[in-house]
Amino acid sequence: MNTSRHPIQCLIPDYVLVEIAKQGDAEEREAALNTLAVSTTLRSARSQAEAARMAAGPAVVATQGLREPAVDRIIRDAKNTRDTGAPIVRKEGDPPVGDAAVDEAYDHFGHTWTFLFEVLARNSIDNAGMTLDGVVHYGKNVDNAFWDGDQMLFGDGSGTWFTRMTKSLTVAAHELGHGVIQCDGPLVYQGESGALNEHLADVFGVMVHQWLLGQTAEDADWLVGAEILAEGVQGRALRSMKDPGTAYDDPKLGKDRQPAHMKDLVITLEDNRGVHINSGIPNRAFYETAIALGGFSWERAGRIHYATLGHPQLRPNSDFRRFARLNHRVATQMYGANSTEADAVAHGWNAVGVEL
């Protein structure tokens, strides 16, 4: 199987961790290198999970689809090991256990499942009732959160640059969003198609957050991971969909490298050819569309995006322009060729220099 198509989906890009390793002291360097090592190991695990799911075929999904839709969560405590099969410490219907990471992950999973079901009429990640399986306290001083193809893994953070990943709903919804993309896409995880993969996960992250708080597009901050930056880090979040490139600027963490326009597209071999970097361009386009439409981002802009992800004409290697043109076509099919919605989608992509 081509592992470049199904690498581990992580929140914090390797290039940020590399910068910390270069600029930090001995302790910071060790934490960054440890997280990088975890990422490498999990890439293999995710590829194997993808292969197993593909080999199982549609019969398994069809059987699962007969289950009545209901959220099903299990949270495991790895106790700072890398045991993804760690004992379950909280399962569906259990009361809070008093461990902040466990209870935060449980709650975030519930909010994300409810959003998928109530807003998008989707039955869990795979649309067939998949159990949401999370592992907290994963590894020691791990500055990241991961979707490995079957589970979500939350590091506690080193405390120097990042805190525990379970603090942020946008982080959890982003990573679970990768699971949705995996089931409905997929989008090859490199170059512009990989940046679209990251972009769509960010869209899921902010929409779930805004939906839970009842925020309009105008009132929302459009930040991803605002809660995970440690005290003293110069920044507001890991990413800003509203203003890509402005989320952080820290002496050791580096500067947010995301562009907001095609004229600034970053050509690079790192970060799977810029998947976390160039996702700033479609992120800004979605923000522009949502603002042009007004109201709640998930009601029209989000539904159009979700329908585009699941469209049969979406290709695994779609670039920004192909996705944008399909995005606009979906808007016209859903709302009409001369609709406000179709015009807003065109405006969003034009604002970032992507021609339809």
From TrEMBL:
UniProt-annotated location(s): Secreted
Active site: E175, H276 (proton donor)
Cofactor(s) the protein requires to work: Zn(2+)
Entry keyword Transport: no
Main localization (coarse): secreted
One of the record's GO molecular function terms: metalloendopeptidase activity
Enzyme Commission code: 3.4.24.-
GO cellular component, one term: extracellular region
GO aspect biological process, one term: proteolysis
SUPFAM superfamilies, per database record: Metalloproteases ('zincins'), catalytic domain
Domain (Peptidase M4 C-terminal): residue spans on this chain: 187-354
Boundaries of every Peptidase M4 domain copy: 99-182
Keywords from the named record: Hydrolase, Metal-binding, Metalloprotease, Protease, Secreted, Zinc
Function: Extracellular zinc metalloprotease.
Family stated for the protein in its record: Belongs to the peptidase M4 family.
Protein name: Neutral metalloproteinase
Organism: Saccharopolyspora rhizosphaerae
